Amino acid sequence: MSTYFSMRDIVKTYHVGDEDQMVLKHVNLDIEEGEFLSILGPSGSGKSTMMNIIGCLDTPTSGEYILKDRKIGSLNQHQLSQIRCHEIGFVFQQFQLLPRMDAMENVELPLIYAGMGLDKRRQLARKMLIRVGLADRMHHYPNQLSGGQQQRVAIARALAVNPTLLLADEPTGALDQATGRQVMELFQELNDEGRTVIMITHDLAIARHARRIVNILDGVLTEGVSEYD
Ligand SMILES: Nc1ncnc2c1ncn2[C@@H]1O[C@H](COP(=O)(O)OP(=O)(O)O)[C@@H](O)[C@H]1O
Ligand SMILES: [Mg+2]
Asked: pLDDT above 90 covers what percent of the chain?
């Protein structure tokens, strides 16, 4: 196995008014390709800040983030957006589907950004929706779908560009327990196919679906779940 990414002494500080708040406190984390990791922590502990840095949506105040042998701090905006578009699939708590587009069109969206032609992206979007079990919902709009189905559309959209990393921030936070478990089973299948999966959650039962758990508490990252046991 080879290293997917490596975080070394990552610090993130936010400045609000006259105050400095250190939200990530010297975080070190190494992920192997093909891992399924949960980042577990309560609200306000720094989970989304971690996700933003892992997903190249934000940069740390100090420290080094190396993603597949590239020093992320030395890349320009274009290079970062290329990584986000082609290598990482994002899944969010509130699905973030576009309400005026049906399931197909939502899944096609990242493929439009990737420059794929109409026929090819229709075909691929259809395949992805079948993959997540929505063969019979392709032309439903988000408000015509249940929460679990909307999250499946969002997962199909995340998978469309064939990312090597699936990065999910509280993906079951808006779902009931049974539906959340189904989404976790889907993540496990995607991980079995060789994709690296990182899931952020405040819910220990959900976190336990991953093979490895790290705990974040007040910006300090530690291996395991001791604080919760
Ligand atoms: N853009 C920002 N500006 C200032 N403070 C922020 C910003 N984003 C997050 N924070 C603060 O950082 C801390 C961690 O936030 P966050 O990473 O969203 O936590 P979590 O996702 O675990 O709930 C919180 O105290 C939050 O108020
Ligand atoms: Mg959050």
From this structure: 95
Of the candidate CATH numbers 3.40.50.300, 3.30.365.10, 3.90.1150.10, 3.40.50.1400, the domain formed by 35-48+77-228 belongs to 3.40.50.300
Distance CA 40, CA 36 (A): 13
User: Where do the domains of the chain lie?
Assistant: 35-48+77-228
Residue nearest to atom 7 of ligand 1 (CA): 14
Residues with Cβ–ion distance below 5 A, ligand 2: 47-48
Whole-model pTM over 0.85? yes
Given a cut of 70, whether residue 226 has pLDDT beyond it is no
Residues 6+ apart with CB under 8 A from 192: none
Model confidence at 98: pLDDT above 60: yes
Averaged pLDDT of the chain: 95
Cα 142 to ligand 2 centroid, rounded to whole Å? 23
Amino acid at the residue 152? R
